[in-house]
Write a structure and sequence with these properties.
Layout: E1 2-5, E2 9-10, E3 21-22, E4 29-33, H1 42-56, H2 63-66, H3 82-89, E5 111-112, E6 115-116, H4 119-123, H5 127-134, H6 144-148, H7 150-156, H8 163-177, H9 191-203, E7 211-216, E8 223-227, E9 231-232, E10 240-243, E11 248-256, E12 264-276, E13 290-295, E14 299-302, E15 306-314, E16 337-341
Antiparallel strand pairs: 1-4, 2-3, 5-6, 7-8, 8-9, 10-11, 10-15, 11-12, 12-13, 12-14, 13-16, 15-16
Amino acid sequence: TPILGRVHSISHCYDSAAPLRRIDNSQPYILGFFQGTSKPNIKKFLRALISELKRLHPKNWNTSETSGLQFTVSLRCIIADTPMRSYLKRIISCNGYWACERCVQMGIPKRFKEIPLRYLSHCMIHLPDDVEKYKVGVECLSAFVYENFQGYFRHFLASGNLPVEQLRNRLIERSLYLLPTSADGLILNSDESFEIEASKSVAGKSSKNVFIKFIVNRSKTQKKLVFSTFVLGKEYPNNVCMLRNGSIIIVKDIVEFPTGSGTYTLVGVKFRSLENAFVKPYVSSHFKTYLASNVSSIDEWDFTSIQGKMEAIPYKFFATKNIEFPVIDSPRSKQKWFVVPIHHTFQE
């Protein structure tokens, strides 16, 4: 039994007068997990979660608990299906008489056109109240996105043996090696990550690929251009992209000049030779798929000329202990690269 959470909105400060910035495309993430042969004791099941929410609450003034915090968390609402809602509240089960916890007057069972009025159908009359209270659409109050997340467990649990340990290991691996993303769960570890996800949410309403932010670490060894649908860096495999003129380039550096201007130059090389990877059942170049080779000398391009991100894989290369993985931007290499577009990054 999982406890799932979802980021609804963010703000710079809990008492800020500025409006909240909603994140519409956030996906569920795991807050807790229980495994057993029967339903858990509800107090024990929620004890750790409640304790953590108290510690992260914006009005927690206990410095011993809040020291080092980069953000706070406020619980907006709890979304649960009817069996879990009755279990959490310790009320009459949804299949019992007078099970609705919102109605204050007992009614009698009714039929609508010879069809019994079920509890689930009855709950629909309270839905407008929730929409008005939380100022959101009906889709934000649905439990479907959480039920759909069950596929996550089927994908990551290899067997029924030690499922809690398996899940813990997978979560640790994702937190260590997965880039901050909202693809299948929001992994946010800084205020900067929050800002990027909020900007992506706003940009997602546009039909164009929107530039979000330039990220560079203190030593300037890592540089990234964050767009609404992809991140372009200066290291393989995240440094290959297609320009609007059809050229495919390999980025070796990203330079902002003048500093603070918001103008960025891509420094790198391009593939001089672009061949059809195949001609049947269709001509690959018609769909931006090529065999690329013969890189040029160093050149420069404006970052606004980027059309989309590409993926490059060595063509007919078989790794062995005695053969190193080829360097994609080597001018002397005769290695060909199978280059394909990452389609969701081409939005124009």
